[in-house]
């Protein structure tokens, strides 16, 4: 169980990934994303998660480079994730998309590169391209995002490299037990996006009292629950105080009873798109 913000999990290829990071979905390119990333790194975060479609890779890269200098960090101490967008999927287009992300980030390599959504008829070719850049050493780990069990089973039929990570929507009302179990059996690390349900649990009548017991906010309780479930988590914020608050979860542990109570809230309820029915 991670004891501090810089603790890592070892992925199935031996690469160490921080348990906790900053997501920058909807953070505006320019000063907003730059300030958020620099605030996070200053606060001790070592993992930043972006994507081509977020339109802020340049700002993320700039912030990472500046934060390294300002905080006396080496590139190896930071973990940067990006993702190939759906319109770029396919073999040649993914190879080009990877180069575009690398160029925008302006880093020597990317730590983790993901297939953003399982685009039907395309994700296998996309994966083949990721395997190529991985074997070339341009990326330290490759993985997927929003894959259900059947997508993973299909991918693994032909894959030479097993995905290291599957990043999915994951929160108390969407605990994805089948996906979590399957990934655990295959050595694929589950990672949560939208872990706070985009702010829907702030006044939750079960989570709030659990937080009061530990002197923690509902958000801190949920993020701690993620970690105790063995799920890497990347809450998004552009507010420095919230970025710091989100990470203040390493000085308490939820009891087994609390874990079960939160787990019982699962309704398989999505706030984001359904990986089996999306049209983008």
UniProtKB/TrEMBL annotation:
Domain NADP-dependent oxidoreductase, chain residue ranges per copy: 26-266
Cleaved signal peptide residues: none
CDD domains registered for this protein in UniProt: AKR_AKR5G1-3
Keyword flag Oxidoreductase: yes
Site (Lowers pKa of active site Tyr): 83
Example GO molecular function: oxidoreductase activity, acting on the CH-OH group of donors, NAD or NADP as acceptor
PROSITE patterns in alphabetical order: ALDOKETO_REDUCTASE_1, ALDOKETO_REDUCTASE_2, ALDOKETO_REDUCTASE_3
Catalytic residues (UniProt): 54
Binding site for substrate: 116
Keyword NADP (UniProt): yes
Annotated keywords: NADP, Oxidoreductase
Pfam families assigned to the protein according to its UniProt record, in alphabetical order: Aldo_ket_red (PF00248)
Residue ranges the record marks as coiled coil: none
Family: Belongs to the aldo/keto reductase family.
Protein name: Aldo/keto reductase
Organism: Fontibacillus panacisegetis
